[in-house]
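New to this. Please check this fold:
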Amino acid sequence: MRTPWGLGVSLIFVACAGAAADDSPKNLGFEEGSVGQAPPGWVVTTAAYRADLVEGGAKEGKRCVRFHPAQAAEEPGVGILLQPVDARSFRGKAVRLRAALRVEEAAGGDGRAQLWMRVDRPGEKPGFFDNMSDRPVRARDWTTAEIRGDVAGDAEMIYVGLLAFGGAAVRMDDVRLDVAGDAEPIRAGGPRPLTPRGLDNLVAFTRLLGLVRHFHPSDEAAAADWERLAVAGVLEVEPAKDTDELCRKLRAVFAPVAPTARIYLTGQAPPPVPEALTNPPAGGRVVAWIHRGYGAKPFPAGLLGNVYSSRRGSHTLVDGKLPPGAQDPADAFPADLGAGVSCLVPIALYADESGTRPAVPKGEAPKPVAGRLTGDDRATRLADVILIWNILEHFYPYFDVARADWPATLRLALESAATDKDGLAFLATLRRMVASLRDGHGNVVFGEQPPAGPLPIRWDWVEGKLVVTEVAPEAGGPDVRRGDVVRAIDGRPAAEVVEDAERLISAATPQWARWNALRAIANGPPGSRTTLGLERADGTFHRASLIHAEPGMPPSESRPPKVAEVRPGIFYVDLDRVSDADFREALPRLEKASGIVFDFRGYPSRISPDTFFPHLVDHPVASPQWHIPTILKPGRGGMTFDRGGEWSLRPAAPFLKARRAFLIDGRAISYAESCLGIVEHEHLGELVGGPTAGTNGNINVIDLPGGYKVVFTGMKVLKHDGSRHHGVGIRPTVPVSRTIRGVAEGKDEALEKAIGIVGRP
């Protein structure tokens, strides 16, 4: 899995700091300035990139800007080019940012370009933000990219610019920032607790919405704006005073999209089957949803490849009768919605040349709410819970493993969302909700989250304690040392702080939860201080006050160079840092090695399995089993799986005959575990260290109203022998745990063990 959103957002926040705004946009066509120099009016905020004006090859006019990694940058990371604009003349307006982009080349395997725009408001109040993370540009030809957003009435600054990822060299030209009309009013309903009746009403609405949205195949349901319909439904249904009123309101909300759905009081006889479900049209069809995973939203282009799809399929009637295998429209799906209401929702419909039957008369279309939806609005927060709960209820493939009490999670999340004070507080509600899935890919990203920077140290959980493992020079010299035990963080016991952080982490294994919790508690507002209570090896205690850095990565771990001969004839290869080109360049040396240690303690994003594995095997090999769910009807029992899409890797020269060891720990997840699954199954070498994260499979990314993105695993991955991987991971054949003494002495104990293994005679 790769998640570009969080890093890009944080870097943009700090990139904007200190950039002075001009009254209006400048040099948007890049015709001003000197060729080979940075374009006037624009600022590069990342040292590993530079922007040069170039003559010729422009989209419009004579010049454009070329934004590319600096020559000396081995790993350029994210490049940020920006221009600050005074927001006063755009206040209360909808604006459109457009630019022509062209990706010339990329040093990494995922070179892409993204426009971005951010609106700053006073007091760190959230404003509009979009960085095109779900629609990056990879094209080698000029491509027009566009962002539309609203500028709040109190906005102070607008930042516009370009992001470059994966070592991409990008040309940009013909930038435009225009007013596209008046800004949409912002919805802002304040927090208020749910009554017991209101909670029951919303639970019933949630269940019905999921059935209709994902399984009722009417043309009207397929075309509905479900985000706004969900908000409108919350406002309509929550106040129902009793079961009769709830039943009436549910009928009113869903009649425009599901006129043949029957909603009735539990215990009473359901209404008769509508004629449209029993009278097939001559020469017509029967229509139903076919879900391969959850594919209603286009997947971010090229990020991992879209293996998921949601579409309506049809069977042609034969002599006015249903063909074999077709769902009978009259056989509606029954459900007890709770709160005294039940329903029968058709999951197939007859259709003719004019569409699904019956057609809803014009004027009866659903009336979604107006206004911009934000996490500061109570009804939007409740709708977000309802929308994502249903997507996960019907499409998450690991409920058999996670064993989450998902109905209880719904009620808790609705109660929390109703009283969250703002969009940032709601982020924690969504994260707790997703954490209950025990999915290592599970995460919630919020574009308006304030930036956070790391402490100038690294730490790890060693021998049951939080221990400092790396110290940057700015940490304060002798105040903090490797091997110091962190007993307290801002006056709270360190173990308690870690446990609180883990409650917001979705993880299939304890090691993944712990790793991410340790990263989370190391972050804080840039420039703020965190006070640590430290215990030395001699038993003495002292305090150290450390300053959080700007957004970015914590101090690097002490490791050898990414490809290094660490002992005569013994090589180290860090798969977390090495690229395809690095590996190919090192092959002649690796071919002569007597032992090789491959380090998988991280994410091998720069190297392809087609580059790496053919030199480790003497016969064709495949990746672990990948199973994409197929969902044709509601209920988890209706989920089936189709296997396919695994890697097929064939041997290539030179074959690396060296004795091998592979370093692993709880950081190795997803793609890393696909690789390690081959190592495990084919016995390619010893697995040294600790168990991996235990989560694999292509992710799904869901946008929610208010600027939230929810990530989850959309497919099931099994080991080569068909046994479970989720929550198990890859286990070491040679377990090695860090020790406080080893940390204090600067040792990499797992690496030392692996070197000893591959160095045996």
Remarks:
- The first strand starts at residue 43 and ends at 44.
- The chain has four domains: 5-182, 186-282+319-438, 453-547, 563-758.
- Confidence is low (pLDDT under 50) at residues 1-10, 299-304.
